[in-house]
From TrEMBL:
<dbReference type="InterPro" id="IPR013785">
    <property type="entry name" value="Aldolase_TIM"/>
</dbReference>
<dbReference type="GO" id="GO:0003849">
    <property type="term" value="F:3-deoxy-7-phosphoheptulonate synthase activity"/>
</dbReference>
<keyword id="KW-0028">Amino-acid biosynthesis</keyword>
<protein>
    <recommendedName>
        <fullName>Phospho-2-dehydro-3-deoxyheptonate aldolase</fullName>
        <ecNumber>2.5.1.54</ecNumber>
    </recommendedName>
</protein>
<comment type="similarity">
    <text>Belongs to the class-II DAHP synthase family.</text>
</comment>
<dbReference type="InterPro" id="IPR002480">
    <property type="entry name" value="DAHP_synth_2"/>
</dbReference>
<keyword id="KW-0057">Aromatic amino acid biosynthesis</keyword>
<dbReference type="Pfam" id="PF01474">
    <property type="entry name" value="DAHP_synth_2"/>
</dbReference>
<comment type="pathway">
    <text>Metabolic intermediate biosynthesis; chorismate biosynthesis; chorismate from D-erythrose 4-phosphate and phosphoenolpyruvate: step 1/7.</text>
</comment>
<keyword id="KW-0808">Transferase</keyword>
Amino acid sequence: MSRNPLPGAEHDPLIASMVAGLPARQQPQWPDPSLLPQVRERLAGEPPLVSYDSVKTLGALLARASEGEFCLLQAGDCVELPTECEPRDIARKVEMLDVLGDIMCTSSGLPVLRVGRIAGQFSKPRSQDWETVYEDRLPVFRGPVVNAPDPQRTARTPDPSRILAGMKAARRAVTAIDRLGRGEGAPPQDRVWTSHEALLLDYELPQVRRHGEGGSYLASAHWPWIGERTRQADNAHVRLMAELDNPVACKIGPEATVDEVLAVCGVLDPHRTPGRLTLIARFGAGQVARVAPLVRAVKQAGHPVLWMCDPMHGNTVKTPDGLKTRKLDAIMSEIRQCIDVVSENSERCAGLHLEASPDDISECDGAGRSPVPGPGYRSLCDPRLSLVQAVAAAAHWRLPVGAAA
Ligand code: PEP
Ligand code: CO
């Protein structure tokens, strides 16, 4: 008996096998890959986390956002934990999206689509494969679907059974969003949409499903994105997204060249479809002016992309204690500059992408908080804004001068 409740939601093995043959960065070395086929098969037999109808609805809303009808807020943890996907956790995260979305709505006069880094933001790209802890050389933490953060060899050993546990946690999160009345049955503009970096191919490929219109979509999230480290146009991550009918996003950093960005646009948005592709600029407050030639080139090539501002990932610095942090001032400055630079180049910045938590944390620096090692610093990857800091950042959202509200 098929376990899929939705017609046409069977796994698409053709896309999976095509992508599996391409170079892919940032994948773990599983010490016991013999477990993977079983994990893949179980995952491929699971019901989809999101329906194709929802994915299409979001695509249509993003197309309207590209016409200036909506703003976008995408926010949540840098790395989500399966232990924090319970109804209480999800209710607080949704509440945070609402608080921040309402602020953006007030300052822009536009309704705000609310998207969580939620229900699957479980794997992380890392700049090193290894780190030394107390003279022990350990694999780095790559997110809870790969290994555990504790600095011990057993915890850090990649374990494929974590992939299934992650998918189950994502389902708890999706169910919790539904039960809050913000999921499948809710009016489109009231929904909380799910998104994450589609990084771990062993998690994503089994979740590629056929849909009733003859194509395929990624059933792990409404809106997957590609990270700055895996956006090579001929590699697995971009080619996978190219085959999918979800709206997709791609992070773009200060090293990106015009040619690279145009190549990504060509692969991901060949038909120049409004809402299909969002480019998330994450340059840093000191470098955001470098987005200008990219905005011009993409526009000239005729891609109706949405631009978003991620003021987090280009502004990461280290404290003297070696803690990763971000200064709220730099985050606010990047937001203001990004809105201006994009509009000076005849496009509109459509929204904000933030790493933020409803918890009372001290990971970023500003609004009365500074990062100190201890219980207030809990992020297992990048430093998040506390709710108060995120409110201060969201207050810098506005439409560019001269834009019609
Ligand atoms: C992230 O969003 O957590 C991330 C790793 O971003 P980027 O790919 O922009 O570095
Ligand atoms: Co991050």
